[in-house]
Amino acid sequence: MDTLSIQILSLYRSPFLSSPDFVEDLKQFLHGCRDSYDISVLVGDININSLDSENHIVNEYLNALYEEGYISTINTYTRKQGDTVSCLDHISVNNHNPVILGITFPEGNRKSDVRGKVQYKSQIDYTQLAERLEGENWGHIYDVGSAKDCAQAFVDTLKHHIKSYTKTSKILRKHCKRKIWRTNGLLK
Predict the structure, then answer these.
(1) Domain CATH number, residue 67
(2) What is the mean pLDDT of each run of 10 residues along the chain (188 residues)?
(3) Buried b (16+ CB within 10 A) or exposed e, 99-111
(4) Gene3D superfamilies of this UniProt entry (predicted)?
């Protein structure tokens, strides 16, 4: 199986740091990282409102990302104060086929009869899930008071939709993974 190298860059730009200096440093940094990883994800509170397309520094920032192959995955507001909206929190990827990560947490022991444990597999219909997420009205998340509550509302909504498009089925015994010491000769 081929492996992918993934780089996750977490950035924070203080509002007191010069935006032009930050963009210039970011350009140099991203250019130096080019082709070092198969997938690169840039996340952070950049304190540059990417919705302000009339602002020169916003265009410089977005162009710096585009020049290095990054695309923005958040193209709507992430902050709302009264009637004012802004997008200061950013996630950009250089892989243009992003995948939603699925993590399954065990819910107790599911055992069959005396012969051993039952194994299950979960499959997510990513096509249907993506269509549903694109159609989701995310406005309710922005109306929540604190950042913690906002994040929890986002996670709860995401988990709900993932569960809706996840099919769990039992793995046939003949397809179950065996412990390495259980050879075919031993099982005959």
Answers:
(1) 3.60.10.10
(2) 78 90 92 83 91 93 92 86 90 71 50 52 85 86 78 86 88 63 51
(3) eeeeeeeeeeeee
(4) Endonuclease/exonuclease/phosphatase
User: Rounded to an integer, what distance in angstroms lies between the CA atom of residue 166 and that of residue 128?
Assistant: 10
- Same domain for 92 and 111? no
For residues 31 and 34, what is the distance between their CA atoms, to the nearest angstrom? 5
The residue type of 35 is D
Statement to judge: residues 92 and 7 lie in one domain = yes
- The C-alpha R_g of the chain, in whole angstroms, comes to 22
Q: CB–CB of 79/46 below 8 Å? A: no
Q: Is the pTM here over 0.90, yes or no?
A: no
- DSSP-derived pairing of the beta strands 39-45 and 71-72: unpaired
Q: Based on the fold, state whether residues 30 and 115 are members of the same structural domain.
A: no
User: Are 106 and 186 part of one and the same domain?
Assistant: yes
Residues 137 and 53 in one domain: no
Identify the CA nearest to 48 among candidates 58, 34, 56: 58
**Residues 87, 179: one domain?**
no
What is the C-alpha to C-alpha distance for residues 181 and 164, in angstroms, rounded to an integer?
Answer: 38
